[in-house]
Amino acid sequence: MFAGLGLLLIAVPIIELYVLIQVGHVIGVGWTILLLIGISVVGTILLKHEGMATWRRLNETIRTGHMPTDEVTDGALVLMGGALLLTPGFVTDVFGLFLLFPLTRSVAKIFARKAFGVTMATRFPGVSAATATRRKVYDARVTDVRRVDGSSSPAPLPSVQLDPSDEDDSPDRTR
Question: Are 159 and 173 in contact (CB under 8 A)?
């Protein structure tokens, strides 16, 4: 992994420099600089808009009691897109804008989740059963608790104790 990261850190600036020189030869140095500034301004506006929209969706999802998996993934991709826009150059700007537009970000989201799943499966063997078989993991809630002897009165949970002074036998939470 570190070899790939090192290669990326060497290759990206070389590619960016080559593209900048080629664009500078075609449209001129002044227009190249203006184009880079224009892309940065548009990217910043788009980053703010998409970041705020993702933040609103995240808050709404949490408020409704659901797990915000899509919103967290979108937030990470928007953040990565913003970081790529801060890096000077046309190639990183293209990838940054790709991650900022919702339509193209949905494509990147598929690849990001698969890459994350593969990473989790290789680094944490306990996760690999669900990931390798592509099975879904479902959320479960306890709706009824029965004692082993068959009675239907629920046993108190470890964090809940019955207070003998309660006439209605309602559980009191202890801290």
Answer: yes
